[in-house]
Amino acid sequence: MRYVVAAFLAAILIIPIALPASAQDQIINGAGATFPFPLIDTWRVEYKDIKPEFDLNYQSIGSGGGIKQFTEKTVDFGATDAPLSKKEEAALSSPAVHIPETIGSVVAAYNVPGVGKGLKLTGPILADIYLGKITRWNDPDIKAINPGVNLPSRPIAVVHRSDGSGTTFVWTSYLASASPEWAEQVGAGKSVQWPASRGVRGNEGVSATVKQTPNSMGYIELSFALTVGMTFADIQNREGKFVTPSLKSTSAAVTAAAENLPAGDGSWTGISLLDAPGAGSYPIASFSYLLLYKEMSTSINSAASARSLAEFIAWAVGPEGQKYAERLYYVPLPDSVAELNMETLSSLTYQGEVILPSDKFSASAEFGGHAYTVAGRSETARAVSASINDAESVEVAFEGQGEVELTLPKAMIDGITSITAGGDEIEFEQADAGTATTVRFTVPQDATIEITGARVVPEFGALAAVALAASLGIAALARSRLYSSRAAP
User: Fold this and answer.
1) Which of 203, 453, 463, 488 is most buried, by CB atoms within 10 Å?
2) Is residue 43 within 8 Å of 142, Cβ to Cβ?
3) How far, in Å, CA of 125 to CA of 128, rounded?
4) Can you state the angle between helices 37-47 and 303-317, rounded to 10 degrees?
5) Helix (H, G, I), strand (E, B) or coil at 164
6) What is the longest distance spanned by two Cα atoms in the chain?
7) Could you tell me where the beta strands, DSSP code E, fall in 230-369?
8) Is the pLDDT score of 118 beyond 90?
9) SS3 state of residue 373
10) Of residues 234 and 189, which shows the higher confidence score?
C-alpha cells in the first residue's frame, strides 16, 4: 500500500501540467487546530525544498475558529480535531471533505507535589472531577486505585480550555461516554458550559497554568505534553487495563477503527477512536483533520492554487510527510488511511475539472480457462494488455512511459526475480502484500515488459509437473526397450 501512495505522489509532484503563470509563488492560507501546528509548520519548511514557490500561512487558532473561517471561506482550508457536526455541514455553501492528517490523544496532566508519574485515573473519576463532585486529591475513589501513593488532602485546581477546540471535543466526548451524568448535564462539544473549573486559552495556556499551579489538573494533547515535559495519568481502558499515553498505545487504538472509515466526502460526524478495543489501547485518541471543499473553487480563486494545495496535502499525508510525525510526537497515519486520503484528493475538482486525475489502470490475462488481473497506477503510462506465457513469465504491454506501480496476484505469478523490456533489465522495487506482489519501476515508451518469477500460475506448474513426469516415463520406457533389443540374441 505504501508503494501505491508513493507512486501517486511521484506522479503529481513530477508531471508538469499547463497552469496559469500565477502558479508561481503560491500563498496558501489555512486556520484551525492548535494540536497539529508543529507538524504542519514542519511540513511547510520541508516542502519548500521540493516546491520553493509554495508558501503556507497557517493560523493556529483552535478547531472552532478554523471551522468558522473555513465556513466563511476566508481561508483555503481548515483544520480541526473534531469532525464536522451535522449542523456545521449544513452551514457550508458547498460539500466538504475530511482528510485525516495525523493522530493524537488527549491526556490528563497534573501537578501534585510529591506525586510522580503513573497516577491512575478512570473515565468516571475524571468526569466527577470536572463535575465538581470529586474535589480533593485524596478522595476515596482516587485512593482506592492508587494504593501506596501519598495523595494530599488538597483541593484539585481544575483547568479547561476556554476557546472552542477539538481537544475539548475529544475530552468531553470521552467524559460523556464514561459518565451518563456528564452526558446529560454537560454533553460533548468544542465548547461547553463547564460546571466547575478555570478556563484558559490553548494547549499552551492549560499546560502553563498546570505547571504553575500546585495540585492542579488539566487536559492537553499528548504531543504537547511530551514536548513541554508534563506529568500525566494512566487511564483505564475498556479492557480494565491502566494504559500510559504514548505513541504506541495511541497507535493501538487506531488499528481497529482505521479499516471502517467513510469516504472523504461522506459524513464523519460519528467517527470516533475513543475507548477502542485492545488491552494496549489508550482510550482517549482521535484523528486530526484537514477540511477542503470538494469543489475547490468554492474558496480558492485559481486552478493553480487549488492544485498547489492538493499536491502539498498529498505529500503531507503520504510517506514523505508522515515520516516527520513520530519525531514530533505524533502518530503516523496507517497505510489504509493514507490510501483513503489519496482517493479523496483524486476526487477534488476546480470548476468541474479534476485537480489530480485518477492514475489507476488494469489489464487481464487468461490462462487455463481462468482470468487474472494486474492493477496499477501511473500518471503517464497505462497497461493495455497482459498475457501469460509458458516460460515462467507474465508480459504486460504499456502505452506511454514513466514510473509505474503494478500489483500482480500471486495466483498469477509469485517470487518475481526480474523485469525486462526488449531484453534489457529494468530496476524495480517490490513489496509483498499477502495475496499479491506490488512492483515499482520505470517503463520505457510504449514498451512490453516481461516479468519473470519462480512460479507462474499454479495450474501451469501442475501441468508442467505432469508433462515432465510423462516425458521421464517415456524416456525410461525407450531406454528399457533399447537395452532389451541389444540383449536379444
Assistant:
1) 203
2) no
3) 5
4) 110
5) coil
6) 117
7) 234-236, 242-243, 285-293, 349-350, 353-354, 360-367
8) yes
9) strand
10) 234
